[in-house]
Amino acid sequence: xxxxxxxxxxxxxxxxxxxxxxxxxxxxxxxxxxxxxxxxxxxxxxxxxxxxxxxxxxxxxxxxxxxxxxxxxxxxxxxxxxxxxxxxxxxxxxxxxxxxxxxxxxxxxxxxxxxxxxxxxxxxxxxxxxxxxxxxxxxxxxxxxxxxxxxxxxxxxxxxxxxxxxxxxxxxxxxxxxxxxxxxxxxxxxxxxxxxxxxxxxxxxxxxxxxxxxxxxxxxxxxxxxxxxxxxxxxxxxxxxxxxxxxxxxxxxxxxxxxxxxxxxxxxxxxxxxxxxxxxxxxxxxxxxxxxxxxxxxxxxxxxxxxxxxxxxxxxxxxxxxxxxxxxxxxxxxxxxxxxxxxxxxxxxxxxxxxxxxxxxxxxxxxxxxxxxxxxxxxxxxxxxxxxxxxxxxxxxxxxxxxxxxxxxxxxxxxxxxxxxxxxxxxxxxxxxxxxxxxxxxxxxxxxxxxxxxxxxxxxxxxxxxxxxxxxxxxxxxxxxxxxxxxxxxxxxxxxxxxxxxxxxxxxxxxxxxxxxxxxxxxxxxxxxxxxxxxxxxxxxxxxxxxx
Amino acid sequence: xxxxxxxxxxxxxxxxxxxxxxxxxxxxxxxxxxxxxxxxxxxxxxxxxxxxxxxxxxxxxxxxxxxxxxxxxxxxxxxxxxxxxxxxxxxxxxxxxxxxxxxxxx
Lengths: 548, 106
Ligand SMILES: Cc1cc2nc3c(=O)[nH]c(=O)nc-3n(C[C@H](O)[C@H](O)[C@H](O)COP(=O)(O)OP(=O)(O)OC[C@H]3O[C@@H](n4cnc5c(N)ncnc54)[C@H](O)[C@@H]3O)c2cc1C
Ligand code: SF4
Ligand code: SF4
Ligand code: FES
Prior knowledge:
- Chain A is α/β, with parallel strands linked by helices.
- Helices cover 26% and strands 25% of the residues of chain A.
- Chain A has three domains: 2-117 and 251-359, FAD/NAD(P)-binding domain; 120-248, FAD/NAD(P)-binding domain, CATH 3.50.50.60; 392-542, no CATH class.
């Protein structure tokens, strides 16, 4: 038997953050993961993160992962990799497999940060080679550097479906379509806009009927659905694809919690059954904490904050930190709350409040709180997001859009971010203080176009790739449009390119004027092209040039 | 297909290679990669067939959870190839049904 003060199960962003905080506080911490490499889902996430500076905004997930690993090492966390935890007995004893043998680890405090698993969707043909989860495709291309297929149908337009589609394009694949059974996408509009510009159709109110093929996927039939999610006969369409990726939600991986016998609640907004926890992330079993996706599906930023909270609380309970604990935990809670603002976060915030309420209720044997509170509809933001492409009218009314007069006077930033998402790196990126987001992080970015001189520094800082530059004064007949472009090959200065609109349609010919890719842009090159004047508000990218 | 050039991840680093065999054919694999990735890089899209209907199966979750990707590795069936790293001289075989054991000590 191995004894430690704090054992953390799962070395994803939540577990790593918990282990780091607890070890920094002075506790002896053991971090366990069944994988050979720590990091959980982080190393698959090659995109820049949302959030604020305090949450590593505009830093890529892979780079956050590297920082966390360094910090874990510096703070003296002991890490056991390739060790599956198969049991949790009571609140202090873990059963693990080490060197092929079953062993136990006894800890004064245990933090479960086991993450989530991807939901399945069954349909005729779903067992064929070529049908896989979106996470599997992400793992293959971003970690193992192999592309699982050439022509992909993505099922599900939540953030994972949208992000993985974008990453498939970056890895050199083609996404034939993204389909979504709801009548609007579930993920962020800015993520959707990236793949729409690249010409990927997003079909809402559509589902998959069948995957065809003998040895592997050769085609898929999709069908439109009505409001009751019933297929509409006659709307079937057959798409030639070799891969079907499923991005239909995640379910918390909480088996160890069940085994230990802690209290659970069923909260659909959090992904299903989740362990009850209090303000310190402690479950109904004293000394057993949870953090990250296991406590409800969110994203990596909130997983890290919950991990920190659990790590601080567990260390505090062991007598470390003392007075400092209260203020440190308050800071983390504040950051967590800021991530749960706005229409996307509110639902989770309410669900989390219910979890806390039920936890208190269960401990004190009180009446459960009003459940209907968590079931309110997602408040629509000011725009109608169906597939992420904004209309010119919507954009004209956006606080991120310069006036016509300002546009006519020369180069200026154009911000096409109109959903209340927890994100603000554009604010910090502007040396002239021309962008503000206030009072909360989910408010829309407001451009003070008089202050903006069109330097373009905000373009690569925006994780949504939602900022562009427009210069109507470029030449008597041409406008200059600059946009972020994270694909290979990069176009060459002077070459002619096909300019595309927000839906990826070729609308004009353009000429590449500049390609900027300095290290501080962190692999988000900015391309400037000259196009005929009348397309200034239409062109937002270029057609990607064929296969690599 | 290997992703050699990547706009974010850069060029695939030149790593050491190891030789493995797949159903008797020699294949080159990159040191440290999972068996599944090595096979995928060579266009192999089948790991096993099912017990009753002999239907083909490949990978599904890619992270060791679903067991769709099991194959016979060095004579041991039911090895999850998405989380098992290649080794020099490793013998990998398509698993028919439940596969069969090749006892080293028999
Ligand atoms: C496939 C996938 C893709 C995602 N992509 C994104 C994205 O692009 N952007 C985003 O913001 N969010 C994404 N998410 C959402 C996710 O909430 C966060 O990114 C984040 O990784 C959650 O952190 P975590 O630490 O809770 O869990 P994880 O990162 O999943 O880490 C959990 C770790 O625990 C280990 N583990 C589990 N059970 C055991 C056990 N019994 N014994 C030992 N070890 C165990 C796992 O192997 C894993 O390493 C994704 C989630 C998944 C599943
Ligand atoms: S273009 Fe430059 S000045 Fe204008 S908003 Fe962006 S960073 Fe600020
Ligand atoms: S414009 Fe600002 S708030 Fe919107 S996605 Fe970009 S960085 Fe975030
Ligand atoms: S693909 Fe699921 S275990 Fe290997």
